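Hi all, a correction to my earlier message: I attached the wrong file for Sporulation protein YqfD. Here's the right sequence:
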Amino acid sequence: MNKKEIGLDRWQIQMQASSFLNLCKKQSIDVFDCTFKNSHISFYSPVFERMHIHHTFPDAVLLNTTGMLGYFFRSLKKPAFVISILLSIGLWMFLSQFVFSVEIHGEDSMCKKAIQDTMHSLGYNIPFSADESEIKKELKMRLSDKVAWLEVEKQGSSLHIAYTPKEHAQIKQTSRKQLYALKDGMIARFDIKHGEKIAKVNQIVHKGDLLVANSLSDSKGSLQELDVEGRVYAYTWKDVVVYAKPQDIKAFSYFEMLMEARREVTKDFHKEDEIIAENVLQFTKELGKIKMVIHYTMLQDITSP
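and the right structure:
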């Protein structure tokens, strides 16, 4: 598409060609397709040069504007066109505040049904005005016993809710079985009812390390056997890699890849486990696919299988 099709101002002026060209050069005015006939000069210039030309050549006459810009400027002189534009903008701004569809992303059908019922009970019936942070807060509060992680994002007129269900750990019976770390991490807290703590908060532990023992030395140096009950929570880390085909990459695909990574990292979560931080380390094209590497920091029960 050339400049005339986009839109140029067409001017006419009566003056000497040499004077005209010297002034254009001196004032750095862009002109195109100059036509010189006797002392009459016709030329084209960009629309943004209009005020500059009026100031430099007070006698210049603007004949018309070509291309799409010309059509737009002529249309602005028609009241019906201006009103329709203003109404369209107003209608778009008004409707953009509302949600006309809700998409729920997750694998557990019971959780999905619970989210749908909760949205309905909270009065979010289509169409509705959406405050993403408020919806997220209300859903997390109502579904804290069912959902381990939840994200709410508005995309145009659609509200996308992604979640991972909680995997409820079985209540442990009191026993003499000592608690060992089942994965590497840094101790965050102890939820211990019975047993002797061996590790300390903020201590780095590795898989197989003894965390809570079933015996305690008394003042005489003899061992006293103890029951062991509770859990140990630690900060853990994991890198998750997800792929997508280049032709699948759209505006929402980045969000969908994150959802896939979050589902992967939370699939073995227990109750009270949570994602603390999420950092995208890499987003590149590799072997014909889009590769995303995400580093997660989590708070997990590292003593429950």
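Sorry for the mix-up. The chain has eight helices and 19 strands.
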